[in-house]
Amino acid sequence: MTSPTAAAPARPRVKQRLGDRVFSASTLTAGTLILATLAAVAAFLLVQGAPAIVADPDSVPILRGESFWSYVAPLAFGTVWAAFLALLMAVPVSVGIALFISHYAPRKLAQTLGYIIDLLAAVPSVVFGLWGANVLAPAVQPVYAWLTEHMGWFPLFAPPVSGTGRTLLTAAIVLAVMVLPVITALCREIFLQTPVLHEEAALALGATRWEMIRMSVLPFGRSGIISASMLGLGRALGETMAVAMVLSASGGISLKVLTSANPGTIAANIALSFPEAFGMNVNALIATGLLLFAITLVINMIARWIIARRKDFSGAN
């Protein structure tokens, strides 16, 4: 008779197939490589930028006798301010386009619009920069003059108005056009994943199409919208050539968006200053890149924390 305390027979170990082992090893290698690359970039920026951060301002010509933090503060402000304005304009339009494609447009029209959105995402940034500097800026300058004349009491539209239209608002509009395809494409795919039963249940209870979208689609896609917005924000924060070609930067921190005295951005400043930089100036520019790296990292961490609060939507986790 078998003792009740006898150990249960061990289950035979399932032999893993070669394909499974190769796939598991390749995915582990890819994940490790991403972390190693990120760590290497951070280490490079820290090692190369630290000398300029702690150096005597008089020994770094590009600082012009001021501290590194006084030099980089207007650039950091301009980077975040321009990206915020771009996101403020792009997100509502992107969500509206995505909803139209996924729930309102006929199938053939939706497919055509989807192709156009995907193609816009592939347009080089220098093309947007040329369009913004040569077409958009002259076209919106009369609008800026009207806003300054009739709404100059509002801090953002305070005078004097720029005579060229190459202002921070113009740069933000260009950035909004650039990030709009990315946000739209992701939101469209998220909205299409909404469970059909949820939508049909809302319609069966008497909801209109908009009420169904407001009660079923938007709550389901909230985390996806945040994820898409953060991806668009990442591109807006790091955009270089378009901003450098459109924005007429003069330094300083100002909330005015229609004047010719505009704060620059970190990425555009690096692109414009790096060809003529030498010695400690190169270290100073790399240090500003380190700050941009940190800003992007912090913003993405905050976005991931917001997304993680909704565990029911696995697509964003």
TrEMBL record:
<keyword id="KW-0813">Transport</keyword>
<keyword id="KW-0472">Membrane</keyword>
<feature type="transmembrane region" description="Helical">
    <location>
        <begin position="68"/>
        <end position="101"/>
    </location>
</feature>
<feature type="transmembrane region" description="Helical">
    <location>
        <begin position="113"/>
        <end position="133"/>
    </location>
</feature>
<feature type="transmembrane region" description="Helical">
    <location>
        <begin position="22"/>
        <end position="48"/>
    </location>
</feature>
<dbReference type="GO" id="GO:0006817">
    <property type="term" value="P:phosphate ion transport"/>
</dbReference>
<dbReference type="InterPro" id="IPR000515">
    <property type="entry name" value="MetI-like"/>
</dbReference>
<dbReference type="Pfam" id="PF00528">
    <property type="entry name" value="BPD_transp_1"/>
</dbReference>
<feature type="transmembrane region" description="Helical">
    <location>
        <begin position="168"/>
        <end position="187"/>
    </location>
</feature>
<dbReference type="InterPro" id="IPR035906">
    <property type="entry name" value="MetI-like_sf"/>
</dbReference>
<feature type="domain" description="ABC transmembrane type-1">
    <location>
        <begin position="76"/>
        <end position="303"/>
    </location>
</feature>
<dbReference type="InterPro" id="IPR011864">
    <property type="entry name" value="Phosphate_PstC"/>
</dbReference>
<keyword id="KW-0592">Phosphate transport</keyword>
<keyword id="KW-0812">Transmembrane</keyword>
<keyword id="KW-1003">Cell membrane</keyword>
<comment type="similarity">
    <text>Belongs to the binding-protein-dependent transport system permease family. CysTW subfamily.</text>
</comment>
<keyword id="KW-1133">Transmembrane helix</keyword>
<feature type="transmembrane region" description="Helical">
    <location>
        <begin position="278"/>
        <end position="303"/>
    </location>
</feature>
<protein>
    <recommendedName>
        <fullName>Phosphate transport system permease protein</fullName>
    </recommendedName>
</protein>
<dbReference type="GO" id="GO:0005315">
    <property type="term" value="F:phosphate transmembrane transporter activity"/>
</dbReference>
<comment type="function">
    <text>Part of the binding-protein-dependent transport system for phosphate; probably responsible for the translocation of the substrate across the membrane.</text>
</comment>
<feature type="transmembrane region" description="Helical">
    <location>
        <begin position="236"/>
        <end position="258"/>
    </location>
</feature>
<dbReference type="InterPro" id="IPR051124">
    <property type="entry name" value="Phosphate_Transport_Permease"/>
</dbReference>
<dbReference type="GO" id="GO:0005886">
    <property type="term" value="C:plasma membrane"/>
</dbReference>
